Amino acid sequence: MRHSTASALQDPGPSTAHLACRLAVLALLALPAPALAQADATPASASPTVTAPDPLVPNVSYAPGQYAKVEGTIVSRKGDALLVRRQNTQELSVVTLTEHTDIESPTGVLNLERKKQDMAMLKPGLFLKVRGHGGDQKELVAERISFHKGALKVTNQISSGQVELKEDHEALETKVNATTDSLNAARSRARAEFSSIATRIADLDAYDEKFTGSVRFATGSAMLTAEAKSTLDSLVSIGKGLNGSLVEIAGFADSRGGAEYNQRLSQRRVEAVVAYLTQEQSVPLRKIVNPTGMGTSKPIGSNETEEGRALNRRVEIRVLVNRGMNAPDSSKP
Question: Which residue among 236, 241, 275, 320 has its CA within the 20 to 30 Å range from the CA of 152?
Fold first, then answer.
């Protein structure tokens, strides 16, 4: 009997294995309920807990006064603070808006003009460009923000849940078939348009003089007369509606008095004209090109006579237009 038991321990048969399995099941059933609950909870507690991060925690900081620019997407916004993710990176920057922040979108021919936009348009999902300097809190204080209308449209659609992915193969095939019969004509138009655009781009740095005018001043004076104001009003009226126009302003004096005095006097006359155009006629400062006092240079009359000196006490205004922006589109019939 002892021999058979030893043999069974050394070489357990099917009956022994079956008995061991039954004993293991009974042992598990005998465990108390809390122990089973603890055993079941162990795998869950082993997995890491993911805590949602604060949406306005940057991983990029800026030294106070450091110039920087960021091109990317608004991740979130809290009041005047934006969290912007740089394009194609995981870099997050806090961008602060102030009352001095310029917000604009390109518009006009070739997107050369700028249109002011409202701060409320800066919503999560908007792709934009930010330029500014580092602030005291290591954030980027925005001085200029620009974005395209197309990006704003997509952002608004995303916000209202209206963006739908349309990948209908049959619809696309129908459109392709509809344009096949006019492919050659489309190619011809494309070549003509490309040639026209290339010419206009080449002319973007070229300006043509549209018209000129001048105003006169009394001896030693920089005060605009009623006649001078009327002349300026007429020039502004004529120039309305011109695309890409610029205004050149140069001031002059007669030869009486010292050179330094006449230089200052000619500059004061220029400043008087600029002030009138910007304040009374709302001409944007960006359209006034380098207004300069020229002293006694370039006289148009003899400084030996009163009539000649009166001609030299003047400010000349030249209105220039961009050749590329005002050229006719040769690609259109």
Answer: 241
